[in-house]
Amino acid sequence: MPRRIIPLADVSAIPDFSGAATSPSGLLTDTLARPLRDLRISVTDRCNFRCVYCMPREVFDKDYQFLPHAALLSFEEIERLARVFVAHGVEKIRLTGGEPLLRKNIEFLIERLALLRTPEGRPLDLTLTTNGSLLARKAKSLKDAGLSRVTVSLDALDDALFRRMNDADFAVADVLNGIETAQAAGLAPIKVNMVVKRGTNDQEIVPMARHFKGSGAVLRFIEYMDVGASNGWNMSEVLPSVQVVERIDAHFPLEPLEAHTAAETAQRWGYRDGSGEIGVISSVTRAFCDSCTRARLSTEGKLYLCLFAVSGHDLRGLIRSGAGDDEVATAIARIWEARGDRYSQLRGSASAPSRDDARRVEMSYIGG
Ligand code: SAM
Ligand code: SF4
Ligand code: SF4
C-alpha cells in the first residue's frame, strides 16, 4: 500500500507501517519480552483540581494553553484505536486525564468500549480514575454505560489539608460521598489512591487506613513520583512504601498477600483481623518495569510507552491521514516491538532521561 500524503509538519511523528503487515495475534511483546495488556486513555488534559504534585497552579494558571477541542481524539477515533489495541492483546482499559469526568458525554465512550471483546471473546476490564468531585452525580450513569469499576484519588481526610493539596477548595466530604454513591451503584470493588508526600500528608496514612478498613474499598498508597517537569519533585519528599506498611502495621497488624497477577503494580497487604486489604505502589523505591505491560494514549492521540517518556507516537496523525485498520495495527506492532523503556529501573543512573528535561510529559496530559 503506498504511503499517503500527510502534512509536512507531522511527517516525522507519523508512525511507520511500511514493510510486511503485522496482523494482531494478541501475542505482541517488546524488546524485554513484555506483552501489551493495559491501555490508559487520557480523555482530557483539563482538570477542576490543581493538585500540588500534578498541576501546580503556578504552571497551570489562567494563561495555560489547554488543547483545543479539535485536537482531542474523538470518541469514534478512541474506539477505533482501542479495537486495534484489544486485537493486539490489551485486556484492560483505564480512562483517565486530567479529570475524565469533565469530558462531555463520557458515558457514550464507555458504552462503545464496553462492547469490545478480547480475541477469546471476553469483555474488557473497563475502569476509570477520577478525583471523585463529580462521582456522586455520575456514578449511576457510568455503571449503566458499562463501566466495571472506578479508582478514586484522595490524599487526606483532614479537610483543610485536602483543600490545600487540591488547591481548588474541594471538600473531603464530596469525595467520600462520591465513593459511597459509586459503591452503592455497583462500581465495586473501589480502589482509593493516596499519593504520599513526606512532610505534606504522611500524617494522614493511619487515619486513612482506619477510615477505609472494613469498608470494602481498597486503599492504595502511591509513592510520590518525579513525573513531568513541573512539580519540583525531590527524593526527600518520597516516603518509601516499607514505612507506610510499618506505620499501619503498628496500629492494625498486616500480613502479605499473594499478587492477583504477575503484572500487578501494587503489593497487597491484608489486615490480620480479616477486615480487608491495602496496597502499596512503590514506583520509586521498588521499580516494576520488568512487568510493565502498559501503553498510554494521550489526549491528542499520541502513544507513550512509559510514564517518563519525552516523546510519543502520533496515532491521531496516522488515522487522520486515512490509514486503514491494518496499517494502524502494523504501526502499533512496530512501536511496541521496539519498546525498551524502563525509566524507574534506571532512575538516577547515567542512562536515565534527565529529570530537568522540560519535554517530559505531564501526568495530566498522558494520564496517570
Ligand atoms: N484526575 C484523576 C485523578 O486524580 O484520579 C485522574 C488523573 S490523575 C493524573 C491519576 C493519578 O495520578 C491520581 O491518582 C494521582 O494522584 C496520580 N498522580 C498524579 N501526579 C502524581 C505524582 N507526581 N506521583 C504519584 N502519583 C501521581
Ligand atoms: Fe487533576 Fe488528578 Fe492531577 Fe489532581 S491528580 S490535578 S485531580 S489530574
Ligand atoms: Fe512502566 Fe515506565 Fe513506569 Fe517502568 S517507569 S513501570 S516502564 S511506566
Automatic annotation (TrEMBL):
<feature type="binding site">
    <location>
        <position position="54"/>
    </location>
    <ligand>
        <name>[4Fe-4S] cluster 1</name>
    </ligand>
</feature>
<keyword id="KW-0411">Iron-sulfur</keyword>
<dbReference type="GO" id="GO:1904047">
    <property type="term" value="F:S-adenosyl-L-methionine binding"/>
</dbReference>
<dbReference type="GO" id="GO:0061798">
    <property type="term" value="F:GTP 3',8'-cyclase activity"/>
</dbReference>
<dbReference type="GO" id="GO:0005525">
    <property type="term" value="F:GTP binding"/>
</dbReference>
<keyword id="KW-0342">GTP-binding</keyword>
<dbReference type="InterPro" id="IPR000385">
    <property type="entry name" value="MoaA_NifB_PqqE_Fe-S-bd_CS"/>
</dbReference>
<comment type="subunit">
    <text>Monomer and homodimer.</text>
</comment>
<feature type="binding site">
    <location>
        <position position="98"/>
    </location>
    <ligand>
        <name>S-adenosyl-L-methionine</name>
    </ligand>
</feature>
<feature type="binding site">
    <location>
        <position position="94"/>
    </location>
    <ligand>
        <name>GTP</name>
    </ligand>
</feature>
<feature type="binding site">
    <location>
        <position position="51"/>
    </location>
    <ligand>
        <name>[4Fe-4S] cluster 1</name>
    </ligand>
</feature>
<comment type="pathway">
    <text>Cofactor biosynthesis; molybdopterin biosynthesis.</text>
</comment>
<comment type="function">
    <text>Catalyzes the cyclization of GTP to (8S)-3',8-cyclo-7,8-dihydroguanosine 5'-triphosphate.</text>
</comment>
<dbReference type="Pfam" id="PF06463">
    <property type="entry name" value="Mob_synth_C"/>
</dbReference>
<keyword id="KW-0949">S-adenosyl-L-methionine</keyword>
<dbReference type="Pfam" id="PF04055">
    <property type="entry name" value="Radical_SAM"/>
</dbReference>
<feature type="binding site">
    <location>
        <position position="289"/>
    </location>
    <ligand>
        <name>[4Fe-4S] cluster 2</name>
    </ligand>
</feature>
<dbReference type="InterPro" id="IPR007197">
    <property type="entry name" value="rSAM"/>
</dbReference>
<feature type="binding site">
    <location>
        <position position="129"/>
    </location>
    <ligand>
        <name>GTP</name>
    </ligand>
</feature>
<protein>
    <recommendedName>
        <fullName>GTP 3',8-cyclase</fullName>
        <ecNumber>4.1.99.22</ecNumber>
    </recommendedName>
</protein>
<dbReference type="InterPro" id="IPR006638">
    <property type="entry name" value="Elp3/MiaA/NifB-like_rSAM"/>
</dbReference>
<dbReference type="InterPro" id="IPR058240">
    <property type="entry name" value="rSAM_sf"/>
</dbReference>
<keyword id="KW-0479">Metal-binding</keyword>
<feature type="binding site">
    <location>
        <position position="306"/>
    </location>
    <ligand>
        <name>[4Fe-4S] cluster 2</name>
    </ligand>
</feature>
<comment type="similarity">
    <text>Belongs to the radical SAM superfamily. MoaA family.</text>
</comment>
<dbReference type="InterPro" id="IPR050105">
    <property type="entry name" value="MoCo_biosynth_MoaA/MoaC"/>
</dbReference>
<dbReference type="InterPro" id="IPR013483">
    <property type="entry name" value="MoaA"/>
</dbReference>
<feature type="binding site">
    <location>
        <begin position="294"/>
        <end position="296"/>
    </location>
    <ligand>
        <name>GTP</name>
    </ligand>
</feature>
<feature type="domain" description="Radical SAM core">
    <location>
        <begin position="31"/>
        <end position="263"/>
    </location>
</feature>
<dbReference type="GO" id="GO:0051539">
    <property type="term" value="F:4 iron, 4 sulfur cluster binding"/>
</dbReference>
<dbReference type="GO" id="GO:0006777">
    <property type="term" value="P:Mo-molybdopterin cofactor biosynthetic process"/>
</dbReference>
<dbReference type="InterPro" id="IPR040064">
    <property type="entry name" value="MoaA-like"/>
</dbReference>
<feature type="binding site">
    <location>
        <position position="53"/>
    </location>
    <ligand>
        <name>S-adenosyl-L-methionine</name>
    </ligand>
</feature>
<feature type="binding site">
    <location>
        <position position="191"/>
    </location>
    <ligand>
        <name>GTP</name>
    </ligand>
</feature>
<keyword id="KW-0004">4Fe-4S</keyword>
<keyword id="KW-0408">Iron</keyword>
<dbReference type="InterPro" id="IPR013785">
    <property type="entry name" value="Aldolase_TIM"/>
</dbReference>
<feature type="binding site">
    <location>
        <position position="292"/>
    </location>
    <ligand>
        <name>[4Fe-4S] cluster 2</name>
    </ligand>
</feature>
<dbReference type="GO" id="GO:0061799">
    <property type="term" value="F:cyclic pyranopterin monophosphate synthase activity"/>
</dbReference>
<feature type="binding site">
    <location>
        <position position="225"/>
    </location>
    <ligand>
        <name>S-adenosyl-L-methionine</name>
    </ligand>
</feature>
<feature type="binding site">
    <location>
        <position position="47"/>
    </location>
    <ligand>
        <name>[4Fe-4S] cluster 1</name>
    </ligand>
</feature>
<dbReference type="InterPro" id="IPR010505">
    <property type="entry name" value="MoaA_twitch"/>
</dbReference>
